[in-house]
Structures are given as C-alpha cells and as structure tokens.
Amino acid sequence: MTCNMLASVMGMCKFTCAIVTRALFILVSLTGVWRVTHVKKDLNYWFLTFLFLPLVAEMIITLRRRKGKDYKWFSPPIFLFLISIIPSIWILELDYQQDKASNPQCKSLDSWESLQRLITSNKTLENVTYQDHLKNINQVLSDVCSNDWILALHQILLILLIVGKWLLPLGGGVTREELSQLLLIFVGTAADILEFTSETMSDVKGNSFQLVYIILAVWTWSMLQFPLHLAVVNSKPDSEDELEAQEVSLLTKHSTDMWNIVEALFIQDGPFLVVRLIVMTSFKVFHQMLIFFAIKNFLVVILNLYRLVVICQDFRPSSSSRGSTEPAL
After folding, report:
1. H-type helices in 168-287, by residue range?
2. CA within 13 Å, CB half, 218
3. Spatial distance between the Cα atoms of 125 and 51, rounded to a whole number of angstroms
4. 237: burial class by Cβ within 10 Å (0-12, 13-18, 19+)?
5. With 70 as the cut, is the pLDDT of residue 187 above it?
6. Which of 84, 123, 133, 272 has the CB geometry, 3.0–4.6 Å to 29, for a possible disulfide?
7. What are the transmembrane regions (predicted)?
8. CA–CA gap between residue 218 and residue 86 (Å, rounded)
9. Is 70 exceeded by the pLDDT of residue 20?
C-alpha cells in the first residue's frame, strides 16, 4: 500500500513538473511577443502566438500517452519552445539594429542603483485601481532600454532551457547520471552562446544588416544543440555479443565522442570562428576580446580534430588485435 502511494505521488510530481515546465516556456514566449508588439506598435504581431499551438498540442499528447515523460534522444518541448521564441528575438534584434541610432532616452539596467531608480520613479499613490497598477507595470517595462530587453530575453531563454530540461521527467533509458552530465554541458554551451551573441552584436557598426543576419543565423543554428541529447545519452550493450558487434563499428563504439566533435566543428565553435573571422576581415573590426574568443574557438576546433585522429588511430589497433588474438582453427 505504501509503495503504491509513493508511486502515485511520484507520478503526480512528474505530471506537475511536465505541465509547469511547458507553462514557463509559453509564458516567456508570450513575453517576447508582447515586447515585439510594443516595439513595433502593431497588434498584428500577436499572430506570433500561433507558434505556441504546436507546444500546446505536444503537451496534451505527451501528458496523455507518456505521462509527461520526455524522449531519450530528442526533446520536443524544448524544440517547440525555441520555435515559439526565436522569431520574436529576431524581430527585436533587427529592429534595435535599425533604430539604435535614433533610440529615445531609456532607462538602462547596468547597475543596482539604476534598477532602484526605475522602480521608484514609477511608484503610484496608495489609492489606485487595478487598471492603474497594470498601467504602471507596463510603463516600468516600457522604460527599459531595448538592448537590455533583448539581453534579458537571451539570458532567460538559456536559463529556462537548462532548468526546463532539469524539471522535465526523464525519458525512457535516460539515467540521472546522464541527465546531470547533460545539464553541465548545457551550462557551458549556454555561456558560450550568450558570450557569442552579446560580444559579436556589440561589434556591429552602422547599418551592417548582413552581419546581423549572419550572427542571428549562426545563433539560431547553435541553439539546436539543446533539443538533442546525443552528447551524453548513449545506448549501452546488454550482452557480450552486442559488445563485440559494437566494437566493429567506430561510430557505434564512440558515438558520444563523435557527436561532441560534430557539435564543436559544425554547430558551435566552428561557425563561431567563421563569424569572428568575417567580422575581422570583411567588416574591419579588431579588438582584444574578439581576438581572444577567435583564438579560443580555433583551439577548440583544432583540439577536436586532434581528438578525432586519436580515436581513429586507437580504434584500428583494437580491431586488428581482436582479429589476431582469435584462436586458429
């Protein structure tokens, strides 16, 4: 009886976490759409909320069929969350780059004192209505500078991707050890992506919309790492026969290492390096931090290529030694 009650409580907790996580996804995406409609002053942008429908449909289907459990190799809610919020960030970034020269005076959030001034300057009297409170909150949010809004959305997006993956119920075949490793990878990946967007966007001079499009495209491409779990989650053999079969294939034996190399070369550090080289050569931007991060990306790419060579060289002797140690008939 106690075991059944404990299982029921655990199932309810997982069910609740699945709903809460997707609700947070929708709330942050809705905040992004609200900001777009406020900046563009066009209510037609509320149609961006239609992008939430796949996430809602996925939530209903997953809760009914899988009790909220995520999948092993791929996370549909995280992928659909990215689909729902990335268009809003694109619109805000492009609008800011277009109008940053003529941007009206706003209140920056670059210090604790500025945050306090922002809040205290918009305080109202005690005897006010609920509508007045809503107007006051709207005014406070509207006074924040556009670049601070965009940076906040980037930061909240990345933090929520990590926390959301932590809250989502584990998929079949995923252990808590693999989840902890995946979350640590997400933290490092999120820090690199945020550094790339913030540092590189600050290098945009004038109306260099080609560079803005390149940065946003590479940023969007790098975000696709979060729905995929191939960097840690791996299929383990259940018997010696399966182990022998796996040793024949390099991709099967070192699938996790191979995916980490692919991520570094083609999804994150490789594209980041290309963009930074374009910024230095084509757009004539040159400073210490840009050089440092370009060298960092270059070292990661070279080390991953070296890792690939080591894996291939170590695999050949192991496969040949197996053939040489087999007893002769």
Report:
1. 176-201, 209-222, 240-248, 250-253, 255-262, 269-281
2. 24
3. 39
4. middle
5. yes
6. 84
7. 45-61, 73-92, 211-232, 285-306
8. 12
9. yes
